[in-house]
Amino acid sequence: MKKKEFIELLDKKILVFDGAMGTMLQSKGLKADECPEIYNLFHKEVLLDIHGQYVDAGCDIIQTNTFGANKIKLSQYGLLNSVVEINQHATDIARKASKGRCLVAGDIGPVGKMLYPYGDLNFDEAYEVFYEQAKALVDEGVDLINIETMSDLYEAKIAVIAVKAAGNLPIICTVTYEQNLRTLMGTDPETAVTILEALGVDVIGTNCGFGADRMVEVLKRSHDISEAFLIAQPNAGLPRLVGNTTVYDLSPKGMAGFAEPLVKAGANIIGGCCGTTPAHIKELVLTVSGLKPIPRKKIEFSKLAGSSKTVLIGKELSTKVIGECINPTARKHLKQALKDDNMDVIVDEAFKQLDAGAHIIDVNMGMKDSGNSEGERMEKAILAIQGMISEPLSIDTIDLKAMEAGLKAYRGKPLLNSTTGEDNVLDAVISLAIRYGASILGLTLDGAGIPETAEERVAIAKKIVNRALERGMKKQDIFIDTLTLTAGAQQKLVMETIKALKIVKEELGVKTALGVSNVSHGLPARENLNSVFLAMALEAGLDLPIMNPMHENMWTVIHSADVLTGKDPQASAYIRRSQPDSHKKAENILEDSFENKLRDTIKSGEKGQVFKIIDELKSQGKEAITIINECVIPALDEVGNLYEKHIFFLPQLLLAAETAQKCFGYLKEDLQKSGQEKEGTIVLATVKNDIHDIGKNIVAVMLENHGFNVIDLGRDVSADVIISTALEHKADIIGLSALMTTTMQEMRKVTEQLNKIKINIPVLIGGAVVTQDYAEEIGAYYANDAIEAVKQSRKLIMERKNL
């Protein structure tokens, strides 16, 4: 189906997706240890019946039975070489069942592994997995692609890029949020829609996670900052296990009651996820038949995004600033850090600029006489910086290979700094921006250099803007820099920059950026010239100054201008900035000791610094166990508290854990010599018939870093193996994970067998579908996440020691 046809359809009516496939397959006899996608090869009649029921219910789109039909997930069932065959059969079955009465969406789910640096799957590997599946679906004739249940926006980003390469079909992408309305990796709805919209996704929304009531808020927030069409696919409420049967608490009529609130919040498509059936979809169809889509908002402001924070740039909004300081060209300490491959210095430079007030961080890795390529440096810098900060980045390079390396590593929506008016450069940068979902900064120069007159620069700006628009970019994703020349060398041309900037704003209507500091190069009292030039540029229409944010008089100009032009309501930002030392990072009132340095280093995840600090502590006579108990564990506890308060998210949690692990490894020999005992022994496992282990792996990392001896049995582990291992190793605790209600029953088997043989080992359980009530029902303890698992484990160990 052509994208234009699909968009026209979305403008006319509310479309209804089908409901759950897994729920229906389970009702038809799918076993917990069985691959759902195998039904495409050996039980086609079952799928024809399920699809047919959804078609008869009146849905507009049915999905292929291919949620896990990628080679990583299929390999777990011995079906590594069946990816194409399964996806082809699934498409044919859905097409046959549709009878031309509805569209067929090729369904693509997560690959089932965490991506680098939090896992071992890199961009290229994940891309190939998604591309293979998408290509099979596209070639076999699906009408559109639905990428769903994404909890990592980086994985969603790679999936979209692969799908775009596989064919020019409409793309839907849905994200799964936690109860705090952030993904597992900490992304909020505004950031998710910003990243996916930039990639060219046609319909963006949410599925799974929770019921329809919470999805209303997700759609409202998405609709407020995006022109994208939206989708909601809620579960049929919350699941609970009644006997051996999974029951969802939202009836078909109850779920249909949320249709109108979802549409009013911006939904163009509504469907069902876990627990929904043809009966739910039939009620939805009846309800939405009397509803019309609300108009899309016309968004004038521009958006850039980090992994979990979005920055809005526009005429009516407060002025945003790009920090320019990560550039080794004139900064010897940065150049030396890059030669030493020391990214901690680069990250520290980013932090300093954010503390000073910058909203976006420019990353320039251009330097000569280095042992590696600019692309390698850019990739490392992007990975290091985005692992520590949430704010958007500007990828600053003229090297196209380095630019793409940065784009592949980046999880958000960056600004590409920059392109010129030269045809080959312009076309290449636009192509990269479209493929990876980025905004571009166009410099008003070409092969002949920087034109002297404003009119000549505007002509180049027009060329850049028109070319980008012709290629399909949005005007909001185009920034123009009219180029600042030095007053010392080219004084007569300084005002041509301001003149050109004003014309660009008035005639082209795009956002503008400008490297302000260049104007004073080679002159004394540079900050005076810079601040006056900045004031002139802001008056001419500058949207995004590129500057050194550590210069306070520049902020005086910005905040004063924002007050006078109405961009700072009630002058709140101006007043905050005017407070004494408000621009400085709060100083630690504690003594700047090496103990504090180690704690701070672990919290910030600066792995390269810990060995040096530990050596200093040891030289002061600190024993290994003291360093662990007084520095490492307290730092991890504080990170855990920040995680629970939703200040830190999974990336920061894992980075701190990895840094702590380096401390443990470095002190391991000393700890062994001192005879230091572990906190206790825990046997961990994902239960029988459940192949999901990402959550369990995170728990294992956190437990190990809090001093526990963890015996990880992996996934799909029987009760017998779990208990025998626990007895063999004299385990203090058994930890069990389950993602599906169908496998939760295996947890009960473990507690029942322990009771039968009269072994008193506490069982701690968790997982997406597990609840406190279920834990109490089977005589187990409950932890809702990795931090709670650590707390509960400590408590249980203490209780056992006191027996």
Describe the protein in words:
This protein has 803 residues and is of the alpha/beta class. It folds into three domains: 3-288, TIM Barrel; 305-578, TIM Barrel (Alpha-Beta Barrel); 594-801, Cobalamin-binding domain (Rossmann fold), CATH 3.40.50. Helices cover 48% and strands 14% of the residues. The strands form five sheets. The protein has an eight-stranded parallel sheet, with helices on both faces. Helix 27 crosses helix 28. The N and C termini lie far apart (68 Å).
Task: Give a short account of the largest sheet.
Answer: 8 strands, parallel
Strands ordered across the widest β-sheet: 1-10-7-6-5-4-3-2
CATH class of the largest domain: Alpha Beta
Mean pLDDT: 93
Terminal CA distance = 68 Å
β-strand amount: 5-15%
Assigned CATH architecture of the largest domain: Alpha-Beta Barrel
| CATH H level, superfamily name of the largest domain | Homocysteine-binding-like domain
Low-confidence stretches: 583-591
CATH fold node name of the largest domain = TIM Barrel
